[in-house]
């Protein structure tokens, strides 16, 4: 049995580039291509590229509870980037969190997940970064982290305590049983290069992910802390706040286009899709979807699944706007998201039954109302759609009322929010997006 | 000027203007594997910036400050009613509202999307067949397009699918399939989306028109009745009758525009490049003037640049296309005195009057609900659908209620019924009554071409680049006035059937010249018309210049005479038709396209 | 971009104050018009759209403020009009042919109106009775008055247009205060969504108006 699984895993590992002729120069080009694919699957660009900036030139700000960290330049430039890294140093950085100079990396760089990546994938990635990425000579200055966390040596202790050993985790993975090879592949991608848990798993006070794999328990992918102000939701089987009502097809479509009948991507997920999952193969997206569907709901799920309740829709349709926030909703939101909360899936996402709307922590919800967001174009869906921000149109009380309305309506049944909640989020807003980042359609 | 222009590397195709025609041509040429540069003199535009909600829901900016329209301070035209007058500059937006910026007027149009009636394409032939050649009034330059409805049908169909047009067909492949326009020609397929719902006034009009013995149908509208993904993969949202179509970018992404329906795909095509802020000054020709070598434009910084190209496509809008031909020496300018030359000949417009019907005060017409292309029409007096013999005029009008959403400032301008003061308390009461309890019915008719109605270059006024403005010599003719009055009279029957409390029928009046101060429509046509005779047309039936075979001129300039319908459906179909022949014939063997 | 700039400005104000709502009703101090011009403007607005049983008048709707603020926009500077010479007079139907932008039209026009008021009735326009003011406005509308090289009808049309705009445009531009213009008309404003109502024929629309800034009436 173990032999079969091993064979299966080998096959899985080979899925990315199944047939490569073993010739010299061609083989090298193929490694670069494979490395590019692995970089896509690992979504390096989402963190190491600023929108509109040169690929992998760094500079993206990470607003962590402890301050702001900037992703470094990982182009092959020898001074500003990683041009002087050897393959071993590169692997050490990615899988153990040790920088070339021996100091430790902040866990904002998801090396606990990358520890699971195979040697083949690591090699291809290194060759790609050294030969397939254009060098950019602009260094990134780290000046946003508050003291004492700006000192790196305590990170070494963190790493010892919480970063898994690459060899050990790969052996553990090889020993696991999976219902089918796609689930195995999906597990590798999500727990490894995809590092989805880096955002979607809660972190402890000491900043480590509370679970690194599905085997570590139901906290894995149960919903993360805010990343750059947006809160990643649970990817487990919860009916209301997770993927319980999503099908494999829904998930694969979301990963390919950022839109599907039950919701649309925003926040960091927009980048995870734009740089990563939209470029994956259909099989890999399916593998991820199938794996996610194996995850059971967390124990502290709100009792009872979501069922649509038409009461709010009927009231609004008849012009009854007496409920808290109802008039505000009709005045500002119903045009796109409709009085019945169904919206127009794939153009304007539904709010009825939307996990983000029902998330116990309403921060992402408040943020999108204040700031708006863009549903980006992908290869398969070339049209982008914009939700405007309402920070100028609504004060904190109005936002609180509106959000409370949608959290209660259509069977959503989630608790209301206060003006103070809104105020707290409003103070964290970044400057308005420059026009250049708005889609041109 | 070209002697000191900066000269760029050649491309296969350069396209002037980024509106509907330009974007369609760009898409088709890139699909044919050709490198394309689109030069657009206005700025780049998008729904996210120009149609942001709710900031863009601003009637003052959209309809009265002409935010998305052409900047007249840099480019305009001069207008006179006849050759004896001095043409004066059209200094303020009023009678027509041309577009500027990526998407052209397609970003802020209304959305009515028609196929031209087959008889309109060969009106001269039909009129002579039915009434004899003497029926054509003297001086009327009635001529056929040189292309038939049957030839264009696949391209009308293509355009509708790209635009996501909502409508109900009457005949598909010869079979009656629905309650569409009984006068419309058979189609090869249904509309891609079902017809929009009737707003209340359209509902009332439909009923009354039926009672009056006419044949109402839903206007075909490029305003999506549902979510839609077009053949290019571009996605539209559904229309929610917000009433902010005309003059605005649609925040719901429901109204077709080049920006929503073509550019998301085109922008990412490696062979495509869009340059905004580039005003094309002229087409450059070779030494014998028979072949274009490229175009010269002024860029956003004011530099003069020449872009060489194998193929030049003018799609800058009807009168800009004609002006560029005149400025570039493509084709012989029209001389109405000698009746020679073709560029500028057969300039036509549309003949639109709006009548108002007041209903019982218990009826709230909710005029703010609407969509640009939505409404109900009948064609009983359009094209050749009725017997003109006893009436003695050529042409006709569809009649419709097209409630595009009347907003507050427009209501204030309209005021009350005739005789009501235009301001003060009486005005206020009349305005409120009109706004709440009335509806408008348009006679949207033809304007026929005449020998003495034409376009040429103005001898006096210049644009911001020192080039002569285009001069329009235009006025209403008896034929058009009689047509309009006949049709408007029929509206009275409908109003009566509607149980009108009051009716004001507005007709064209004899002796009253064209007034540039009142908005008519932006459906201008002709001036560089298509045809089969180089002596009476500037373009052959493929919209190719008779004189310069690698210049194609796409737009309503191609219309040899007026049509009662809105032009964009025809412009798009002609663009696809021209592109088809460029792709299948011209690109393989450049030269004059025959037959 | 004037609209967006205006919205942004309002946004800033709103963000600071923490609450969307009408600007505090302290007397507005005009930026463009001098005292005499301002007096004319207020008086003329009051006659063009008087307060009555139908609803508020132009003054209550802050139309004068709207017009004053408009004078500092590209529109009022004539930036949108073809202002190249030569300027030749011609038939009215061929449209506006003067070398003046709206700001200059107001300067000339108001001076002319006040001059005619003084000549005919010995007092500036604002000091006249309502009936006399209406007479004078009608005369201007007919083109009977002379304002140098500005025909009175041209000025009148400019004024009337801007008054209508002020009474019925979004409050973000300074007029239509409290959305009173929209309310008396029954116009829902910047909600721009009638999907639920399009086929509820003849029904009275129950929701009031909402402005771009979210103000509700």
From TrEMBL, chain A:
Compartmental location: Cell membrane
Binding site for heme c 3: 333, 336-337
InterPro entries noted in UniProt: Cyt_c-like_dom, Cyt_c-like_dom_sf, Cytochrome_c-type_DH, Membr-bd_ADH_cyt_c
Cofactor note: Binds 3 heme c groups covalently per subunit.
GO-annotated molecular function: electron transfer activity; heme binding; iron ion binding; oxidoreductase activity, acting on CH-OH group of donors
Annotated positions binding heme c 2: 196, 199-200
Annotated heme c 1 binding sites: 44, 47-48
Co-factor requirement: heme c
Record-linked Pfam families: Cytochrom_C (PF00034)
GO CC aspect terms: plasma membrane
Keyword Signal assigned: yes
Keyword hit for Iron: yes
Keywords from the UniProt entry: Cell membrane, Heme, Iron, Membrane, Metal-binding, Repeat, Signal
Protein name: Cytochrome c
UniProtKB/TrEMBL annotation, chain B:
GO molecular function terms noted in the UniProt entry: flavin adenine dinucleotide binding; oxidoreductase activity, acting on CH-OH group of donors
Limits of the Glucose-methanol-choline oxidoreductase N-terminal domain: 228-349
Keyword Protein transport among record annotations: no
Residues covered by the FAD-dependent oxidoreductase 2 FAD-binding domain: 12-57
Keywords for the protein's UniProt record, in alphabetical order: FAD, Flavoprotein, Oxidoreductase
Keyword Flavoprotein among record annotations: yes
Family: Belongs to the GMC oxidoreductase family.
Record-given protein name: GMC family oxidoreductase
Species this chain originates from: Komagataeibacter rhaeticus
Taxonomic placement: Bacteria, Pseudomonadati, Pseudomonadota, Alphaproteobacteria, Acetobacterales
UniProtKB/TrEMBL annotation, chain C:
Pfam family of the protein (one): Gluconate_2-dh3
Protein's UniProt name: Gluconate 2-dehydrogenase subunit 3 family protein
């Amino acid at each position: 049995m173990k032999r079969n699984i091993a064979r299966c895993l080998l096959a899985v590992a080979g899925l990315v580039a199944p047939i490569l002729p073993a010739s010299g120069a061609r083989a090298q080009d193929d490694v670069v291509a494979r490395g590019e694919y692995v970089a896509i699957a690992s979504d390096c660009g989402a963190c190491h590229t600023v929108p509109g900036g040169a690929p992998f030139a760094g500079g993206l700000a990470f607003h962590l509870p402890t301050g702001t960290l900037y992703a470094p330049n990982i182009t092959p430039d020898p001074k500003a980037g990683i041009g002087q890294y050897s393959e071993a140093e590169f692997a050490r950085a990615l899988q153990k969190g040790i920088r070339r100079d021996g100091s430790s990396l902040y866990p904002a760089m998801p090396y606990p997940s990358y520890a699971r990546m195979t040697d083949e994938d690591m090699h291809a990635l290194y060759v790609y970064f050294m030969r397939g990425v254009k060098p950019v000579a602009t260094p990134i200055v780290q000046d946003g982290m508050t003291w004492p966390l700006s000192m790196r040596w305590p990170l070494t202790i963190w790493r010892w305590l919480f970063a898994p050993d690459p060899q050990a985790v790969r052996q553990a993975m090889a020993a696991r049983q999976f219902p089918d090879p796609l689930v195995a592949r999906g597990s590798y991608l999500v727990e490894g290069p995809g590092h989805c848990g880096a955002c979607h798993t809660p972190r402890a006070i000491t900043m480590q992910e509370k679970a690194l794999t599905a085997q570590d328990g139901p906290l894995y992918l149960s919903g993360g802390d805010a990343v750059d102000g947006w809160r990643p939701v649970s990817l487990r089987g919860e009916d209301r706040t997770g993927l319980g009502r999503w099908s494999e097809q829904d998930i694969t479509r979301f990963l390919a286009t950022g839109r599907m009948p039950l919701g649309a991507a925003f926040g960091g997920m927009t980048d995870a899709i734009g740089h990563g999952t939209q470029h994956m193969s259909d099989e890999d997206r399916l593998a991820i979807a199938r794996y996610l569907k194996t995850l059971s709901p967390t124990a502290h799920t709100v009792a009872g699944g979501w069922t649509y309740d038409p009461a709010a829709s009927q009231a609004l349709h008849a012009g009854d706007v007496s409920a808290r926030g109802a008039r505000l909703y009709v005045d500002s939101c119903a045009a796109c998201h409709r009085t019945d909360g169904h919206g127009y899936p794939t153009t304007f996402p539904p709010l009825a039954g939307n996990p983000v709307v029902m998330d116990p922590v309403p921060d992402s919800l408040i943020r999108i109302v204040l700031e708006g967001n863009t549903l980006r174009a992908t290869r398969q869906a070339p049209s982008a759609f914009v939700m405007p921000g309402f920070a100028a149109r609504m004060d904190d009380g109005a936002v609180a009322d509106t959000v409370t309305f949608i959290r209660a309506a259509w069977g959503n049944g989630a608790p209301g929010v206060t003006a103070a909640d809104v105020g707290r989020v409003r103070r964290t807003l970044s400057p308005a997006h420059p026009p250049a980042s708005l889609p041109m359609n | 000027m070209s002697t000191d222009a900066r000269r760029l590397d050649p491309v296969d195709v350069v396209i002037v203007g980024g509106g509907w025609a330009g974007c369609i041509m760009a898409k088709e040429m890139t699909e044919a594997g050709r490198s394309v540069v689109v030069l657009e003199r206005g700025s780049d535009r998008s729904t996210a910036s120009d149609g942001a909600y709710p900031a863009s829901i601003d009637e003052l900016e959209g309809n009265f400050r002409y935010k998305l329209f052409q900047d007249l301070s840099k480019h305009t035209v001069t207008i006179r009613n006849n050759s004896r007058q001095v043409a004066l500059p059209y200094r303020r937006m009023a009678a027509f509202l041309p577009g500027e910026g990526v998407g052209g007027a397609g970003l802020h149009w209304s959305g009515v999307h028609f196929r031209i009636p087959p008889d309109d394409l060969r009106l001269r032939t039909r009129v002579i067949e039915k009434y004899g050649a003497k029926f054509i009034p003297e001086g009327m330059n009635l001529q056929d397009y040189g292309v038939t409805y049957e030839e264009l049908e696949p391209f009308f169909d293509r355009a509708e699918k790209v635009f996501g047009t909502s409508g109900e067909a009457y005949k598909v492949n010869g079979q009656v399939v629905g309650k569409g326009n009984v006068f419309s020609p058979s189609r090869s397929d249904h509309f891609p989306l079902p017809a929009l719902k009737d707003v209340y006034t359209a509902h009332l009009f439909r009923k009354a028109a039926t009672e009056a013995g006419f044949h109402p149908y839903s206007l075909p509208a490029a305003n999506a009745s549902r979510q839609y993904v077009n053949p290019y993969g571009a996605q539209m949202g559904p229309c929610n009758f917000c009433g902010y179509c005309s003059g605005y970018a649609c925040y719901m992404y429901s109204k077709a525009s080049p920006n929503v329906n073509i550019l998301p795909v085109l922008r990412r095509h490696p062979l495509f490049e869009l340059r905004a802020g580039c005003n094309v000054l002229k087409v450059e020709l070779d030494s014998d003037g028979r072949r274009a070598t490229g175009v010269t434009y002024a860029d956003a910084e004011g530099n003069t640049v020449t872009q060489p190209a194998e193929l030049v496509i003018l799609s800058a809008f009807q009168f800009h296309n004609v002006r560029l031909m005149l400025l570039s020496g493509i084709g012989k300018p029209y001389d109405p005195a000698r009746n020679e030359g073709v560029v500028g000949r057969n300039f036509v417009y549309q003949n639109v009057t709006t009548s108002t019907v007041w209903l019982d005060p218990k009826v709230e017409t909710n005029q703010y609900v609407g969509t640009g292309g939505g409404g109900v029409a009948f064609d009983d007096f359009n094209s050749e659908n009725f017997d003109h013999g006893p009436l003695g005029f050529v042409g006709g009008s569809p009649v419709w209620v097209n409630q595009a959403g009347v907003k507050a400032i427009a209501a204030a301008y309209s005021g009350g019924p005739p005789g009501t003061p235009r301001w003060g308390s009486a005005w206020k009461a009349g305005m409120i009554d009109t706004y709440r309890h009335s509806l408008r019915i348009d006679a949207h008719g033809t304007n026929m071409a005449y020998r003495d109605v034409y376009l040429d270059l103005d001898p006096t006024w210049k644009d911001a680049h020192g080039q002569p403005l285009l001069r329009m010599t235009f006025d209403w003719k008896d034929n058009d006035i009689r047509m309009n009055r006949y049709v408007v009279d029929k509206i009275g029957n409908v109003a009566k059937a509607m149980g009108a409390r009051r009716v004001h029928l507005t007709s064209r009046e004899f002796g009253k010249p064209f007034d540039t101060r009142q908005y008519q429509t932006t459906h201008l046509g002709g001036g560089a018309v298509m045809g089969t005779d180089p002596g009476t047309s500037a373009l052959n039936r493929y919209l190719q210049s008779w004189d310069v075979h690698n210049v194609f001129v796409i737009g309503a300039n191609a219309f040899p005479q007026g049509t009662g319908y809105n032009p964009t459906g025809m412009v798009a179909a002609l663009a696809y038709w021209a592109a088809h022949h460029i792709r299948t014939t011209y690109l393989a063997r450049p030269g004059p396209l025959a037959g | 971009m004037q609209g967006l700039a205006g919205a942004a400005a309002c946004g800033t104000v709103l963000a600071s104050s923490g609450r969307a709502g009408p600007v505090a009703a302290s007397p507005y101090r005009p930026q463009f018009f001098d005292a005499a011009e301002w007096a004319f403007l207020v008086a003329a607005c009051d006659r063009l759209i008087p307060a009555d049983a139908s609803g508020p008048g132009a003054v209550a709707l802050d139309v004068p403020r709207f017009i004053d603020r408009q004078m500092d926009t590209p529109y009022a500077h004539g930036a949108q009009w073809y202002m190249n010479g030569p300027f030749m007079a011609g038939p009215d139907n061929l449209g506006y042919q003067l070398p003046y932008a709206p700001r200059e039209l107001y300067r000339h026009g108001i001076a002319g109106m006040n001059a005619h008021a003084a000549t005919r009735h010995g007092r500036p326009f604002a000091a006249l009775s309502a009936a006399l003011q209406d007479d004078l406005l009608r005369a201007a509308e007919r083109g009977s008055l002379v304002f140098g090289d500005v025909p009175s009808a041209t000025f009148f049309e400019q004024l009337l247009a801007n008054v209508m705009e002020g009474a019925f445009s979004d409050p973000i531009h300074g007029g239509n205060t409290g959305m009173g213009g929209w309310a008396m008309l029954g116009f829902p404003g910047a909600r721009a969504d009638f999907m639920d109502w399009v086929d509820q024929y003849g029904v009275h629309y129950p929701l009031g108006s909402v402005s771009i800034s979210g103000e509700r009436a």
